Amino acid sequence: MKKNFSFDKSTFLLTVIFVVSASLIFFLMALTYKHLDNQTEGYSKITDSYEVSLQLETLYSNLKDIETERRNYILSGTEESRIESKTIIEDKIFNNTRLLKNIKQFSENDVENSKNLDALQMMILYKYDIVNETYNGIVNKDDEESVKESLLAGKNVMASIHDKIREILETEHSTLEKQKENLLFIQKSTPIYFYLIAIFALFLLVFAFYKINRDVKKQKEINKQLNLTLNISKLAETVGNFGVWVNDISREKVQISDNLYRMLGYEPNEFLEKFSNFIENIHPEDQEIVRESTHFMFKDRIIKPFRYRVFKKNKEIRIFEVNARAMVTEEGNEITLGITSDITEEVTTKANLEIYNKELTQRNKNLSIANETFGEAEKIGEFGTWQWMITENKFNFSDNYLRMNGFDPANFDQKLNTILKIIHPDDVDFVKTRVAKMYNLEQCDTFTHRIFRKDTGELRYISVASRLTKDVQNEDYFLVISSDITEEFLDKKNIEEQNRILEANNKELHAFNYVASHDLQEPLRKIETFISRLKDKDYDNLSESGQKYFERIQFAAGRMRKLIDDLLQFSRSTRVEKNYELADLNELFHNAEDSNNVLILDKDAIITKNALPNLRVIPFQIQQLFSNLINNSLKYSNPDISPKISLKVEKLEAKYIAEISQNADEIFYKFTFSDNGIGFQQDYANKIFELFARLHGKTEYDGTGIGLAICKKIVENHQGYIFAKSNIGEGSQFIIYLPENL
């Protein structure tokens, strides 16, 4: 008969009858239940007692087997039998552990037996210690006294265990007899309670039939309303993407709504409604969260909403959120009533929003830094920016743009007309034409105009570059960059003027070259011709003073010839086309030696060098460089000793060359040209490379003062460097750096 009743409060009499009858029935049922429960408990205890007896006997049998196996090993065991015997004993010990655990579970409510079992367990553990000593070599099998002592200890502990087991069995037997007496009484009294329950139930059914039958129609109407409400609830679950569940802890049963099944990818009732089955769908990492939340729920009667992940039937991961409350039913069962919502999309959306907000925050931070950096860049680069939003006809001028034009950024009205007022009158129409093109969304080329600064009235040149682009709302706007190029503009004008002057000088130089190569050389050739004829025919007819004058004329003509030749060489070194080609510098150096061969033999000079590299150079100029340096060393040699000239070369990185500042990764070849000549003061180390620079009189040493100037020009043509080091009487060094790659 059902334990839950629906009371019709409108029928007082029926209510009273139901209450009284139900009370009597419940009282009788309680007594019956108590008898049945006692009967069940008695059967259970009898069964448990019997089971304990069997397992104790099995336990003792295993212990005897262990002792027998140990004795056999002590008396006749070998190393091989030790391993086999130890394995057998370990299996027995494992079984005994399981048996003892089961026995304790059966006797956990019996205090006396629990104490006896604890004592028995201590004896068994002591027994295991004796066994371990035997198999771990602590007992010396060769020592008869040690063997006797071990066997006696095993025998004594087995006797103690036997006595303790007998004591436990006697206790169980006594308990068993008491349970039999109780069962006999219960069996006799139970039918009486059943008869009483049947009589009261029959009376109640007969009396209540009429009332219940009358209320059936009302109940049907109520059921219709309940079904309607249930359908509405199911529809709400489907639309709201949530499910309802009830977890009955005592029965380990979970009642799950149909929509919660579907949320997990199953058909309704596809798996058994058990908490263990439901939790299998939960992500392994979140199962503990669910268990802990359920535990705290029943402990504190409070549960906060929590989330966990689940695997749908198709292995798709979803995120659920639970709102639940714990309660106790009328039967005293602890249950949880909960609503589970699928919040996967909500969580995903929130996570995406957080990522977006984080990115947006970072972008705003970066934009702020970029704006600050750009503002500083405007100051350093002397430029400013402004934007023209065409649709709204609004302007936004940067602070540095306003400062560049002489305005105070804090008090500027952000209007273009204010800017137009400071433009040079001659440039206003030109600027307005460009502004009109921008207003018509036409791209404008970079242009330059002049302004008078608002604060000082100073004339400045402004370069304007613009670009049509779109903002985030897809609206057109112009981004304009204005730069103050006054110094650059004026420098450009100065350079153009200098280029004009330089071009004029080049024309004059070309004219000089033409004069030197034609107009000057022609009369000089005639003078040299007449001197030659005069020397051949009339030199002997001249007086002694006439011959001296003739020799001075001849010497002056020779100097004039050399001066013109050197000037032509210097001119060619300044305007030669720089056609570099790979050349063997050893060959060029030998050619330079050949060109000075007469002077080398005349002075008995010794020339040495290292192996020179192959470089991209202008070959005839490098040969001229070597020739001029050899000639210079021979010319200024010490007359008392034979000239010694050496050329050494090494490869260096620019960062290791203190005399020059170049890209640190660039490679140079260092040529050191040394001699043992008369030398010069180091103070003149730069002057000797100047055109027509001479440190000695014409009568002391022959020369025009052009040779070393040509050397410097050749080195510069090769993007190199030349330096001189010397002291008077200690010879000279010419150091040349030529780049590896040209």
From TrEMBL:
<dbReference type="InterPro" id="IPR005467">
    <property type="entry name" value="His_kinase_dom"/>
</dbReference>
<dbReference type="Pfam" id="PF02518">
    <property type="entry name" value="HATPase_c"/>
</dbReference>
<keyword id="KW-1133">Transmembrane helix</keyword>
<keyword id="KW-0812">Transmembrane</keyword>
<feature type="transmembrane region" description="Helical">
    <location>
        <begin position="192"/>
        <end position="210"/>
    </location>
</feature>
<dbReference type="InterPro" id="IPR036097">
    <property type="entry name" value="HisK_dim/P_sf"/>
</dbReference>
<dbReference type="InterPro" id="IPR003661">
    <property type="entry name" value="HisK_dim/P_dom"/>
</dbReference>
<dbReference type="Pfam" id="PF05227">
    <property type="entry name" value="CHASE3"/>
</dbReference>
<feature type="domain" description="PAS">
    <location>
        <begin position="244"/>
        <end position="301"/>
    </location>
</feature>
<keyword id="KW-0472">Membrane</keyword>
<dbReference type="Pfam" id="PF08447">
    <property type="entry name" value="PAS_3"/>
</dbReference>
<dbReference type="InterPro" id="IPR007891">
    <property type="entry name" value="CHASE3"/>
</dbReference>
<keyword id="KW-0418">Kinase</keyword>
<dbReference type="InterPro" id="IPR052162">
    <property type="entry name" value="Sensor_kinase/Photoreceptor"/>
</dbReference>
<dbReference type="GO" id="GO:0000155">
    <property type="term" value="F:phosphorelay sensor kinase activity"/>
</dbReference>
<dbReference type="InterPro" id="IPR035965">
    <property type="entry name" value="PAS-like_dom_sf"/>
</dbReference>
<dbReference type="InterPro" id="IPR001610">
    <property type="entry name" value="PAC"/>
</dbReference>
<feature type="transmembrane region" description="Helical">
    <location>
        <begin position="12"/>
        <end position="33"/>
    </location>
</feature>
<feature type="domain" description="Histidine kinase">
    <location>
        <begin position="515"/>
        <end position="742"/>
    </location>
</feature>
<dbReference type="InterPro" id="IPR036890">
    <property type="entry name" value="HATPase_C_sf"/>
</dbReference>
<dbReference type="InterPro" id="IPR000014">
    <property type="entry name" value="PAS"/>
</dbReference>
<protein>
    <recommendedName>
        <fullName>histidine kinase</fullName>
        <ecNumber>2.7.13.3</ecNumber>
    </recommendedName>
</protein>
<keyword id="KW-0808">Transferase</keyword>
<dbReference type="InterPro" id="IPR003594">
    <property type="entry name" value="HATPase_dom"/>
</dbReference>
<dbReference type="InterPro" id="IPR013655">
    <property type="entry name" value="PAS_fold_3"/>
</dbReference>
<keyword id="KW-0597">Phosphoprotein</keyword>
<dbReference type="Pfam" id="PF00512">
    <property type="entry name" value="HisKA"/>
</dbReference>
<dbReference type="InterPro" id="IPR004358">
    <property type="entry name" value="Sig_transdc_His_kin-like_C"/>
</dbReference>
